[in-house]
Amino acid sequence: MSILRKDPLSNGWVIISPERGLQTSDYGPVGTTVKKSGLCPFCPGHESKTPHEIFAYRKEGTHADQPGWWVRTIPNKAAALRNEGHVGRRGKGIYDLMNAIGAHEIVIEGPDHVSNFTTIDPRLVEEIIRMHLDRMKNLREDSRFRYIQIFKNYGSAAGASLDHPHSQIIALPITPRWVKEELGCTAQHFARKERCLFCDILRQELADGERLVFENEHFVAFEPFASKFPFETWIIPKEHNANFHTIPEEQIRPFADAVRLTLSMLFHTLQDPPYNFIVHTAPLYYRKANYWKTIDDDYHWHMEIIPRVTKVAGFEWGTGFYINPTPPEEAAKYLRDGGK
Amino acid sequence: MSILRKDPLSNGWVIISPERGLQTSDYGPVGTTVKKSGLCPFCPGHESKTPHEIFAYRKEGTHADQPGWWVRTIPNKAAALRNEGHVGRRGKGIYDLMNAIGAHEIVIEGPDHVSNFTTIDPRLVEEIIRMHLDRMKNLREDSRFRYIQIFKNYGSAAGASLDHPHSQIIALPITPRWVKEELGCTAQHFARKERCLFCDILRQELADGERLVFENEHFVAFEPFASKFPFETWIIPKEHNANFHTIPEEQIRPFADAVRLTLSMLFHTLQDPPYNFIVHTAPLYYRKANYWKTIDDDYHWHMEIIPRVTKVAGFEWGTGFYINPTPPEEAAKYLRDGGK
Predict the structure, then answer these.
(1) Does the CB of B337 have a partner CB in chain A at under 8 Å?
(2) Within a domain: residue B84?
């Protein structure tokens, strides 16, 4: 049974998840790569090979777990978290643990087995985003959860175990370490300046210009000033908004466009690199309003895209201190110029 | 020129290091793997192929940059930090940066091109540790530095770019993020309990027993309760000591034994896995003494070993929240039983 354990030396939690399938005896020489079987469980017609679908956008008259869908959400078969039961926060000597209560869902991003965000119909990208929003709103109803994490692993080097385009949603009973750390910094900034730190970053990026990658009416894509990885790219709404799930209707299409066009630039420039994207949004119970600030004043949702083009070595893992060989200004220029 | 930039949304710094050699144009399909040339610059007889040696243990009568050494320290040719100049802390709008002042050294761990910690003479392991200590003590003399990081990348999947056994030492003008975070937790613990958190962990590990991997008179190797990675293993001195460089003389041999024998267990059980090891020690200016605690009361040096047997996917990178499929108790048992 999966369990959540707290690292006593950080604010981080770890899921110890033997159900994920890897057993000690599986470890040998590395490179236990993706097992390829002939049949893709995510392709239309193979719906019976997946757990029962949670939700799908499908043609009228078609039924759950049948073809006719264009975006389909299913439980992750190898879920690291389970939905039944109580969180059960408890200690064990000096250690802290809780049950790995949560949800782990797969969003199948279309019927096509071979496609990606740069080749699919722009309207499908919008539909995928709408599915993310629908699932997030639904999962937020469960009071046991503290954070809903949307992310995508593209390519085996980025952690994908199946080729068919898909993203993932994880609901957690804790707020992840990075989001906590971002919130700590943004809250400090707001306390001092009464301004959102992300809004300040955005203003400086728009003024400096040299790290900008893409811009439309509602969104900006840029390489962060202290990029940890070459071609790390963030997409952020211009208008202050703490929560992804409260994105205004008129911003959904522009966000889908920003995601698709930014990924296309990375695709063409880096020749189809493996990548991860992650949506950072305010936690469910982020409610630290007081007399001088309103709820949600000091967080600002955004998407982080990390192409996996370099290896992360011991120095980085052991220190949290990254060496990035590519200045973000150069990366941004290279992307803007289409890899020339 | 390399520069240190602060991530405004965390306590982390990043080295932007175009000198490291990778240019934007080098990025293409991933897997720009280690370039193998016939000649190993770290082998005896090829001393002229490296920068001038900083320090070596060598036979009497032999000269610098000549054969006759058994452990040899040289500057890293592709150093991410440089030694000359001032740190130059400054801001740029809302961003913070400083010059990438520091040192980046390579410790060549013996003349043998093909060897590892499990096959070499135990006395050589001790000599390598002594070199780490000598270099750390020397680098601590430079008042610009705040932290000295010792680490090793073994195997190309762990970030090694040359096969010849070597470890690395980096001197930094900042304290890395993880060490800062550990210090935050240990200081809180000491404030509440007047005890070192690491000492408490050690006591519980010795009492529980199920995560222990190795023990001798002065050191314990164990799998941390909230291990982020399968077979993550820590080696920690039983006696409280904040600083690696103040290890008592009589503990050096037992530490070398603990490192060698723990790595041997990982080597045999996981069949020569790529791994990283990292020494965590107190920062140079960790001097927060006050009326109720002495200097160095609340940190405790240790070595972290991370075998690189699983891929790290988007979820982990984007959240700092790790999913580990192997319970540390199982990993410890597996190591103790020699992989059976």
Answers:
(1) no
(2) yes
